[in-house]
Known about the structure:
The chain is 39% helix and 11% strand. The chain is an alpha+beta fold. It has one domain (8-62): Factor Xa Inhibitor. Strands 1-2-3 form a 3-stranded antiparallel beta sheet. A hairpin with a 5-residue loop joins β1 and β2 (22-24). The longest helix is centred in the last third of the chain and has 11 residues, at 52-62. The mean pLDDT is 93.
Amino acid sequence: MPKLKTKKGVAKRFKITKKGGIKRQKAGRGHLLAKKSRKKKRLLRKPGLVSRSEEKVIKLLLRR
């Protein structure tokens, strides 16, 4: 059976943490930043975690 290839779009967007969770960037930091508060923009800088229900699908796409 051939090797499974990683979905490169997924690999660029997600990283696996030491404990096995999946880190992601939060949405809303791309544009229209003038109307967002300083606090909101600061909170959007921090990475978020993917929900448990979505983890299985993303790990399949990463195939690690």
